[in-house]
Amino acid sequence: MQQQYGKLFLIPVPLGENAAQTIPNYVTEIIRQLDYFIVERAKTARFFIKAAEHPRPLPELEMVELSEHTKESEYRQFLAPATQGRNIGLMSEAGCPGVADPGAVVVELAHRQGIQVVPLVGPSSILLALMGSGMNGQKFSFQGYLSAKKENLGQQLKRLEQLAQKENCTQIFIEAPYRNQQIVEAALKNLAPQTRLCIAVDLTLPTEFIQTRKIEEWKRNPPLDLHKRPAIFLLG
Q1: Alpha-carbon distance 164 to 144, whole Å?
Q2: Are 106 and 165 found together in one domain?
Q3: Nearest-CA neighbor of 221 among 192, 190, 199, 206?
Q4: Among the listed residues 109, 46, 52, the one whose alpha carbon sits nearest the alpha carbon of residue 75
Q5: pLDDT in tens, 205-231
Q6: Could you say which of 90, 119, 148 is where a domain stops?
Q7: Are 6 and 87 in contact (CB under 8 A)?
Q8: Which of 42, 116, 169, 226 would be 180's cystine partner, CB 3.0–4.6 Å?
Q9: 118 DSSP β-pair partners
Q10: Structural domain containing residue 166
Q11: Contact 176, 232 (CB under 8 A)
C-alpha cells in the first residue's frame, strides 16, 4: 500500500517583531503540530516558533534554509519528508511564503510531486498596502524590486507611471529598506505632479505609516525618515 503524502503548509510570519498577534490562532495551532520546517531565515523562524509556544524544544525541530541560490536538487531533498508522510511548514522571513519570496519554487515543486499545498491566512504587506492606499484594487500589478542603479530607476518609475495611467492599473513595488530614500527622491524628481504615490511603512507595527498623496503634495510635505524601515510603494 502506497504511503500517504504529508501536506505542505504555507505559514505566514509577522511583518516585524512584537506583531505575533497578527497571526490567527488556527495557524498557531498548526505550527505547534509540526516538527519540520523549510524557512528563508532560521533565526527569524525560531523566534516566531518560540513565540507560538511550540510544545517541543527548538533543538528538537528540524529546519532547513532556502534562498534564491538553492538548487532544485536541494528543493527535492527538502520535500522528501512529505513523501514519507510528514507534514511540512514553509516560512518566509516575513509575510506570506511564495509571494515575492523564494518559497514559490518549493510550492511549484510540491504540486509537481503530488504533495497537497495548504496556504494559511496571515499578514501580506503587499495586500495590506493596497488595501490602505485607496488605489485601484480591481486591477493591480506587483513589480518586485526596481533597479538599484540611479540612472535606470527614473526610467523605470516613468514606465510604471505610464502603465498605471494608461491601464488604470495600480503599480506596486518594493525596495531594500536601506534604499527607500533613493526611491522617494527618484519619484519626486521624475514623476508628474498629479501622479499619486502611496508610501506604506512598518505595516502592522506601532510605527505604521500609510499615506497616499500626489507627487506635488509629497514635494511640499516629504515623508519622514524611511531609512531601514520596511516599505511598500504604489503608483496610481
Answers
A1: 15
A2: no
A3: 199
A4: 109
A5: 999 999 999 999 999 999 888 988 999
A6: 119
A7: yes
A8: 226
A9: 9
A10: 125-235
A11: no
User: Do 109 and 141 fall within a single domain?
Assistant: no
Position 129, amino acid: A
Question: How deeply is 158 buried, as exposed, middle or buried, from its count of CB atoms within 10 A (0-12, 13-18, 19+)?
Answer: middle
Answer yes or no: do 131 and 104 share one domain. no
Instruction: Please provide the DSSP assignment of the chain as one string.
Output: -PPPP-EEEEE-B-SSTT-GGGS-HHHHHHHHH--EEEES-HHHHHHHHHHTT-SS-GGGSEEEE--TT--HHHHHHHHHHHHTT--EEEE-SSB-TTSSSTHHHHHHHHHHTTPEEEE-----HHHHHHHHH-S-SSSEEEEEE--SSHHHHHHHHHHHHHHHHHHT-EEEEE--GGGHHHHHHHHHHHS-TT-EEEEEESTTSTT-EEEEEEHHHHHHS-----TTS-EEEEE-
CA distances from 204 to 47, 74, 151, 199, 210 (A): 18, 34, 33, 14, 11
Could you tell me the pTM of the whole model? 0.90
* End-to-end Cα distance, the chain: 56
> In this predicted model, which residue has the larger pLDDT, 141 or 70?
141
C-alpha–C-alpha distance, residues 157 and 187, integer Å: 7
The Cα 165–Cα 182 span in angstroms is: 23
Domain boundary among 95, 119, 143: 119
State the pLDDT at residue 2.
56
173 shares its domain with 188: yes
Place of cell 497537497: 116
Q: What confidence tens digit (pLDDT) does each residue in 20-63 have?
A: 899 999 999 999 999 999 999 999 999 999 999 999 999 999 99
